[in-house]
Design brief:
- This is N5-carboxyaminoimidazole ribonucleotide mutase.
- Pathway: Purine metabolism; IMP biosynthesis via de novo pathway; 5-amino-1-(5-phospho-D-ribosyl)imidazole-4-carboxylate from 5-amino-1-(5-phospho-D-ribosyl)imidazole (N5-CAIR route): step 2/2.
- InterPro entries: PurE_ClassI (IPR033747), PurE_dom (IPR000031), PurE_prokaryotes (IPR024694).
- Keywords: Isomerase, Lyase, Purine biosynthesis.
- It holds the Pfam family AIRC.
- Strands 2-1-3-4-5 form a five-stranded parallel sheet, sandwiched between helices.
- Helix 5 packs across helix 6.
- The chain contains six helices and five strands; from the N terminus they run βαβαβαβαβαα.
- It has one domain: Rossmann fold.
- By secondary structure, it is an alpha/beta fold.
- Bound molecules: 5-O-phosphono-beta-D-ribofuranose (RP5).
- The site of 5-O-phosphono-beta-D-ribofuranose has 10 residues, from strand 3.
Amino acid sequence: MTPLIGIIMGSDSDLPTMKDAIAICEEFGIQNEVAIVSAHRTPERMVQYAQQAHKRGIKVIIAGAGGAAHLPGMVASLTPLPVIGVPISTRHLQGVDSLYSIVQMPAGIPVATVAIGSAKNAGLLAVQILATQQPELLERVQQYRQALSESVIAKQTKLEQ
Ligand code: RP5
């Protein structure tokens, strides 16, 4: 089956964070692909990936990067697809560097940036974008939200016991 969500990252060291996005795709049964694509170490591969993704049937790209995190913005400049950026936490600046690198895009080339390390929300946002065109998936997003609410109520009930 053709992957609908492309999950890319600058390094395999980003994988422990990005696996949360993969897990959400799997939970919702969305075909996805995972690739290491570095803006600095493999720039030609990045250009090729970004220019080809929509032609291969990808609908949303999730891009995680840390430090001088240029991958999401550069990919966004090369593709007509929506790009969701995941700032990876870093050793020296705890991911504030990644966040600022990803979130401060110039007008015209948006990157939907999630919180530092929040690949789970990136996965959910990608699923919700797909769900705008898939009523069944939209229903499952509603069910996910319902389960989330119920888990909070259950915790409150437990607290009161
Ligand atoms: C970025 O540099 C990657 O996205 C990663 O977060 C960071 C460090 O990469 P490694 O040195 O661990 O490969 O390009």
